[in-house]
Amino acid sequence: MTYIIANWKMNKTAREAVKFIDALTDYLNNKKSISHHILIAPSTIHLPILSKSLSKSFNLAAQNIAFKDAGAYTGEVSAKMLSEYVQYSIVGHSERRCYFNEDHQILYQKLVMCLQHNITPIFCIGENKNDRDANNYLTIIRQQLNETLMLLDDDDLLKTIVAYEPVWAIGSGNAASLDQISELHTYIRSILFQRLGEKSNDIPILYGGSCNSSNTQSILTQNNVDGLLVGGASLDVVHFQKMIDMLDV
Ligand code: PGA
């Protein structure tokens, strides 16, 4: 089953979010069958209200999760609290790494928090432009995996989703090329394979970075691409529905 995840980032008021969800629900209710995982990651503050109108055809995800379970962490929201509303959470998005200095150690703790509360982490990795230009990107990707995800035991590792998001492609309007996507997804799969063998195929590897309705199909035809993590193009419900339609083609 293919994944399509809408990462709204810090966009939409409650009213706008409800309007989107109502429209998406109507649209999905009219579809004959839905054989994909459709996830919406709104702002945390909207999760309670959106979870009330949640239909069976899609799920909610958190965009972030605290690195501790409870305590004096002003402004944070724990996995335990979020688990009342979501079964998934994005972890390690490049914007969290960049603006909030989330390092490997914190990200590992966030993974553990998710797994302790039955939340599937959607773990983002990706090289920045300097790493790409210096031809250093495979080393960076291996390091990002080795110092976080690969520290989990096999059972937990198999409960995760990986999202490859080259930082230079996010929000740029230019997705990575199909060759670049294919190279990286095959590389990530090979790292997981070395550890888990055939079972590694159970870990979905998603691509993110300027996905839209024009490149959805071509990206999804690449080997080892199991879905898309969509930012800007997920904000407009009609555009997002168009992308959902393309998963069936
Ligand atoms: P974008 O964002 O689709 O706007 O490039 C993707 C993401 O940051 O997850």
Description:
It is a single chain. 39% of the residues lie in helices and 14% in strands. With 249 residues, it is of the alpha/beta class. It has an eight-stranded parallel barrel, surrounded by four helices. Helix 3 links the parallel strand 3 (59-62) and strand 4. The structure holds 2-phosphoglycolic acid (PGA). 2-phosphoglycolic acid binds at residues 7, 165, 170-171, 208-211, 229-233.
Give a nutshell description of this structure:
The chain is of the alpha/beta class and 249 residues long.
Tags for this entry?
single chain, 249 residues, alpha/beta, 8-stranded parallel beta barrel, 39% helix, binds 2-phosphoglycolic acid
The shape, in one word, is globular
Helical residue percent band: 25-40%
Annotation, overall tally of beta strands: 8
Largest β sheet strand count, sense and barrel closure: 8 strands, parallel, barrel
Low-confidence spans: none
Q: Would you tell me the structural class of the helices and strands?
A: alpha/beta
Rg over CA atoms, rounded to whole Å, is 17 Å
Bound compounds, please?
A: 2-phosphoglycolic acid
Order of helices and strands: EHEHEHEHHEHHHEHEHEH
- Approximately how much beta-strand content do the residues carry? 5-15%
Spatial sequence of strands, sheet with the most strands: 1-2-3-4-5-6-7-8
Oligomeric description of these chains: single chain
Average pLDDT level: 96
How many DSSP helices? 11
Q: Alpha-carbon distance between the termini?
A: 13 Å
